[in-house]
Amino acid sequence: MTKKIKFGTDGWRSVIAEDYTFDNVRRCTQGFASYLKENGDEGKWIVIGYDKRFQSENFSKTAAEVMVANGFQVYLTDRATPTPVISFAVTKKNAAAAINITASHNPPTDNGFKVRDQFGGAIAPDGLNRIEILIPDDANDVLTIPYDKAVNEEKIVLFNPEDEYISHIQNLVDIQGIKDAGLHLVYDPMWGNGAGWFSKILAGGKTKITEIHNERNPSFPDMLRPEPIPPNINVGLAKTIEVNADVLIINDGDADRLGVGDENGNFINQLQVYALMAYYMLEIRNKRGPIVKTLSTTSMLNKLGKIYDVPVYETGVGFKYVAPKMMETNALIGGEESGGYAFRNNVPERDGILAGLFILDLIVKTGKKPSELLTLLFSIVGAHYYDRIDTKFEGDREEKKQKILNANPDTIGGLKVTGLNASDGYKFSLEDGGWLLIRFSGTEPVLRVYCETTHEDCVQDILEDGLKIAGIK
């Protein structure tokens, strides 16, 4: 019996050659094509792009063959392209949707299938559910035509969206100011789609770029996976110290997430980066508008919202929740704990390239080093400390979920529990304004335990208690 394909937090991901096969990519694409036809989009253009993982370019061609056979026309990127650039191309080309062949930050064994709407943003949960329902059980029920035939009939058009995207972001950030600043930047694209992008965008100025991990290598040496968090970024942090650079900018494998290291080779975590990004928009750029955050990201945003008198909206985890809320509220910025940030006047999609440029502009405009910016942030909202533990689990998810609900702890990490939000995972509010979140990954058999607190000495105790509540210890 054919296995059902389930969409997680951000599309479908699975192990190459085990579940992630050409036939299953065809099935996924057929489900998406049927969904778009239900919405009246038949005959419109679809953008399809891909990353540098094993066989991604060929999986993307397979998806294109199915879309054309279903009555669509396809703009297919002619090279591995960052996810935010693919999303921007949807709006630039006035396309109906996009398919992106990428597993983002997953291990090298995996590949994935992301879908985007006409705004270049993630499709809301009800839409993803409908796509799942429309995925045929049998690959024999998929419509497809040969790739070469579709190209010859100009129903598949190869294109490079690079120049149009770069022209677009020049209207959003002071590129020339960064070029002229004379910074020394270490850039780590993690063997992925971001390779060469910062060098091209910032070419011709005084700012110097040392780029590492910038070749195609689907095995991702020097890291467990192309995710911009420790220990995957340790080589980049060491390089920053070695060359005496001002900052480390890291993008994940498809360049939609951002990691940052300071001038001393210390990691600035994703929650701190998000708060810095919000401060930059509100204080340095003097912009106003709602902030959208997932429940797994920082309470520093709530404090900044009060200081600058802007609303803060909290959603479930994943841009399938963040993107629709950004559109609904005309948000200034949206983001999540994983290091994905989106911005007004861009597509409602994580953009690790633009986010990295905004961090560089913050450094330039304030004249402060990254470590000094973090000190400045803490002087405004107070010091906040964060960590997370990811652990593989076995057994029944529902049983573990019930165990967490039944735990009902009075204290976690020595801090009094003041509430529980079970809307997406299990978020325990703590007396200091911090929190513990226990959540099952939507894309892997992984349990994530996260916390944020104003008590640095409580972080590990909170995480340990979280693992016990989940029945892991």
What's this model, at a glance?
With 473 residues, the protein is α/β, with parallel strands linked by helices.
Q: Please, what is the CATH homologous superfamily of the largest domain?
A: Alpha-D-Glucose-1,6-Bisphosphate, subunit A, domain 3
Share of helical residues: 25-40%
Radius of gyration: 22 Å
**What does the average pLDDT come to?**
95
Level-2 CATH architecture of the largest domain: 3-Layer(aba) Sandwich
What coarse outline follows from CA principal-axis ratios? globular
Strand order of the largest sheet: 1-5-4-2-3-6
Low-confidence stretches: none
The number of helical elements comes to 16
Major β-sheet annotation: 6 strands, mixed
Structural class: alpha/beta
Task: Enter the CATH topology name of the largest domain.
Answer: Alpha-D-Glucose-1,6-Bisphosphate, Chain A, domain 3
Domain count: the total is 3
Let me know the number of strands.
21
First-last Cα distance: 36 Å
- Tell me, what is the CATH class of the largest domain? Alpha Beta
- Strand-residue fraction? 15-25%
